[in-house]
Specification:
single chain; alpha+beta; Aminopeptidase; 5-stranded mixed sheet; 5 strands; globular
Length: about 150
């Protein structure tokens, strides 16, 4: 794969990204739900509450995506991006597309005045960890990550 284009996703890209997002969710053991994926990606783009980067080949085939959520670091008193989703289609893996998306995320963070990027990944996702570390990401050895599900009000 020679010519890979990374661009900021627009409404026109929802149909290309949704199957990748659905496959990403399945990778993390969620049930397939393409309709949900379409709605979610369309809403993120419509509300502009996430920055989605799309990797495409020369024929505009969607190969992968990266989703960044703007948030803040109160300790540094500066904005950051939470890199929450990164996915490359299985047939496109090994061509450096994940690295290109990570580098584009870093450039976007710089351009939007973010002081850093944060991400979490599964402890078992060793290939992703190796890729992050090869690009200079540093694993947090100080803080634990916690999560708690919250039910909607009755």
């Amino acid at each position: 794969m020679h010519s890979i284009k990374i661009s900021t996703a627009t409404k026109a890209d929802v149909a290309a990204i949704a199957p990748l997002f659905d496959a990403y969710r399945q990778f993390y053991q969620y049930a397939p739900d393409l309709a949900l994926a379409n709605r979610y990606i369309a809403e993120r783009i419509e509300k502009a509450d996430a920055l989605i980067l799309l990797a495409q080949d020369a024929s505009a085939q969607a190969l992968g995506f990266c989703q960044l959520y703007p948030t803040f670091c109160s300790l540094e008193a500066k904005p950051i991006y939470a890199l929450y989703d990164l996915y490359v289609a299985p047939a496109a893996r090994g061509a450096g597309i994940g690295n290109l998306l990570l580098l584009a995320a870093e450039q976007s963070a710089r351009e939007h005045g973010m002081c850093r990027l944060d991400l979490t990944t599964a402890k078992t996702n060793l290939p992703a960890q190796a890729a992050y570390e090869a690009l200079g990401w540093v694993r947090d050895e100080v803080y634990f990550s916690y999560s708690k599900a919250v039910s909607p009000p009755p």
